[in-house]
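Task: sequence in, structure out. Protein: Alpha/beta hydrolase.
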Amino acid sequence: MRAPRRHLSVMSLLASMALLLSGCSVTTTPVSESTATAPGTAAKAPKGLEKFYTQNLEWNSCDGSLKCAELSVPMDYANPAGETLSLKLNKRPGSGTVQGSLLVNPGGPGASGLDLVRDSVPQMFGRSLQDGFDIVGFDPRGVASSSPVKCEDAAEQDAGRQVQFDTSTDAGLASMRASSADYAALCAERTGAALGFVDTVSAARDMDVMRAVLGDEKLNFLGFSYGTSLGAHYAEMFPKNVGRLVLDGALDPALSNEEITLGQAVGFENEIRAYLQDCLASGDCPFTGSLDDALTQLRALLDSVEANPMVASDGRSVPIIDFVNGFIIPLYDNASWPTLTQALSSVMDGDVDTIEYFADLSAGRTSEGTYSGNGAASFTAINCLDYPMNADVATMRADAATLTKAAPTIGKYLAFGAVGCQDWEFKATGKPGELTAKGAAPIVVIGTTGDPATPYAWSQSLAKSLDSGSLVTYQGHGHTAYGRSNGCVSDAVESYLLEGKVPTDGLTC
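Result:
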């Protein structure tokens, strides 16, 4: 999860260096096709939602061989006759015998499904999966190009990232709270009423509208990280409409925001230890001695940056939170560990540019100084609705002490997350709770044993709580498994999605 603005940004998204937050650019070409609803869909539409379930999608050519379309959904499902939101979709058409649509979501919340389909599917997804389905990406409500949450412009985001708060003092914490209140007011002013309806439950309901207008009787879905929350909530609400669902790198819906933050703090702490062990064994590590020695040196480095922020070659300061954001991005994929070693070696020599690059990647900042998508704003907006949070000072300080004890290297940078939602215009509508999806078709959950952002125990918990859950375990490091692990995982995912072969519960890859 992401802590508040100008605090640590631990994004639970698909960590792919090619997955940048940029919207789908639709070219102005004639309409090439339309999608009508499946036979009988209107009769199955929830009462009052018929016009949404029976709308036609007009697909335009975009981004080469892709197609893009726009979908209308109610802003408030309790008032379907009221205002509407516009959601953007794209698809990579299958070839040969196409089984229907496969919706995909890369996580976040705040990551763009359009970007996943445009940039990463050819490298991540098996050829048979690309041929067998129309692979459909979407930006959930409030995200990127879908009625986006609007907060700061690029200059304001740049300025905000230069600010550092000393939350160890009451005065520093008060300044942070005042800044967060200003940010909340800005988001409310620039976004309007839609800010109160970007919650995960509403986004999952949107997926059923997508299923219907795409012409599918059942929903086939592949969700990564936060995308597993969308998928699990969908299955809970529409169990009879579940086709083949794969949830990779699961969030545990029964956990509170505080429990999620603690789990991630421990997850990243463990991954830091694994990285340092690998670094020390490489013979090209900026740290020396034993693992404990290396941890001490790393913590000293972070303390030094906190006391005296480094300045990159472009003149921008890299305060500790931006520094840590840049540091953790390569921890999402162990294939990037050598790059992290190079970045830290450069830091030791006084060069922070690579760390700044990763921090910019985390924030969605382009080399031109613009920000693609709206990851920070939508992340905050969705989480503030999904999770009740306690911003009482004494409670937050106690939580901070717990985080620091459990994760001595990284924990303190995840503290005080509740501040970001304290003055949010709309109060939380979600609450933690176990999801069972009783009556749903088999749902495959994939967990990675060394996943820092969505710890393995969360996938175990979700698979166990789902009545039809089947757990696949990838023994390895990094965030999520499909598309970055091994053939065992790929075979399990693709055999299920394409042929309906449910992997044995407990399969280990």
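DSSP finds 18 helices and 15 strands in the chain.
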